[in-house]
Amino acid sequence: MKTDIKNRTDIEILINAFYDKIKTDSKIGYFFTEIAHVNWEKHLPKMYDFWENVMFSTGDFVGNPMDKHKELHQKSTMTKAHFLHWNALFDETVDELFAGEKAAEIKQRAANIATAMMYKTLG
After folding, report:
1. What mean pLDDT do residues 15-41 have?
2. Cα atoms found within 13 Å of the Cα of residue 115, Cβ hemisphere only
3. Mean pLDDT on 32-51
4. Which InterPro entries match (predicted)?
5. Rounded distance, CA 41 to CA 57, Å?
6. In the structure, what pLDDT confidence band is assigned to residue 85 with cuts at 50, 70 and 90?
7. In Å, what is the CA distance from 32 to each residue of 9, 22, 83, 98, 119?
8. CB 55 within 8 A of CB 113
């Protein structure tokens, strides 16, 4: 039986599973592997901090994801379909691992963040 997202450990489980999908995804994986050349050892802890802060207001995240997405868009054009696909993979990963109020909340927050980034990045 699935449990709800309760703490940072659950965030780490979710983010690790999500980015394992991203790394090999045929539609958007190349942004991470070929364009941004993500250093996963540095990126994943930042994502843990980001999502833990989003869900539990820890104040631990430092960074500007908007600027990073704008830089990436200048290197390789992103489209609405890319953002929607990112969101679908995120929701799919949440649903595979968790169920409950926080699971529903993280999906809604991810959708809101992706929409804001899409509009600000794509113009």
Report:
1. 97
2. 6
3. 96
4. Globin-like_sf, Globin/Proto
5. 23
6. very high
7. 24, 8, 13, 25, 20
8. no
Q: What is the pTM of this model?
A: 0.94
Please provide the size of the chain in residues. 123
- The Cα 32–Cα 96 span in angstroms is 23
Q: Spell out the SS3 assignment of the chain.
A: CCECCCCHHHHHHHHHHHHHHHHHCCCCHHHHHHHCCCCHHHHHHHHHHHHHHHHHCCCCCCCCHHHHHHHHHHHCCCCHHHHHHHHHHHHHHHHHHECCHHHHHHHHHHHHHHHHHHHHHHC
Determine whether 46 is exposed, middle or buried from the number of CB atoms within 10 Å of its CB (0-12, 13-18, 19+): middle
The tokens of 50 are what? 């980001």
**Residue matched to tokens 């990436």:** 72
Q: Would you state the structure tokens that stand for residue 2, as one six-digit string? A: 């699935």
